């Protein structure tokens, strides 16, 4: 399984976070630093299991907790129609540090409205 951005989603990498804009609804999501790193890696083709192992080795988190948080991030992004899972290889951007969306959750993601709150407005 690989993760890819949906066609209507624009991605902006701020270095520490990722901002995803659903261009059809005007809603945006901003990840935290860990969520950004995870999302970058998933879009580059990494698996959730591989990432959970890496996070557990580098951070004070268990492998099971990391796996659950990664699964929650994927579920949240898919439910929001920002990403899609496919059986083949990913067509996303190059790998980088993990990230997540803007309605704060344990998965590193949070959402907001685009009425100027995302900076710049429309």
UniProtKB/TrEMBL annotation:
Biased composition (Pro residues): 90-100
Biased composition (Low complexity): 101-116
Protein origin, superkingdom: Bacteria
InterPro entries recorded: PQQD (IPR008792), PqqD_sf (IPR041881)
UniProt-annotated stretches for the region Disordered: 78-122
Protein name (Swiss-Prot/TrEMBL): Lasso peptide biosynthesis PqqD family chaperone
UniProt source species: Actinomadura gamaensis
């Amino acid at each position: 399984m690989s993760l890819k951005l949906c066609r209507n989603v624009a991605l902006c990498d701020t270095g520490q976070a990722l901002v995803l804009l659903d261009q059809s609804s005007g809603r945006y999501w901003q990840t935290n630093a860990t969520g950004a790193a995870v999302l970058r890696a998933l879009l580059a083709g990494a698996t959730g299991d591989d990432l959970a192992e890496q996070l557990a080795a580098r951070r004070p988190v268990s492998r099971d907790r990391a796996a659950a948080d990664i699964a929650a991030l994927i579920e949240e992004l898919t439910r929001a129609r920002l990403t899609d899972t496919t059986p083949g290889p990913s067509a996303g951007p190059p790998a980088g540090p993990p990230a997540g969306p803007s309605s704060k959750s344990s998965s590193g993601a949070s959402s907001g409205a685009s009425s100027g709150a995302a900076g710049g407005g429309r």
